[in-house]
Amino acid sequence: MLIAGFWQLIKGKWYIGILQLGSLFVGVLGLIFISSFMSMFGPDTDTFADNLKLPKNVKLEKPIDTKMGDNFESIRPDSIKQITREN
Prior knowledge:
Blueprint (H helix, E strand, L loop, with lengths): L1 H9 L3 H28 L46
Helix pairs in contact: 1-2
């Protein structure tokens, strides 16, 4: 439609050329809108860790509470530096 629209403009058929280029523009915008809507609200396709089994002998550590609450703008301290080793 892009080439046909420009061809119509070159031939002097302004109404048909602008109509073809406009419909191409609206179609591309519609396709972008529909694909982004489907990717946000469509089915979940992330199945990487669905069958993940953790070993029984691994000790899982809980995250350190940084007591930030709703203050997302401040710099969060690095929690890995606060961990002490138990020998």
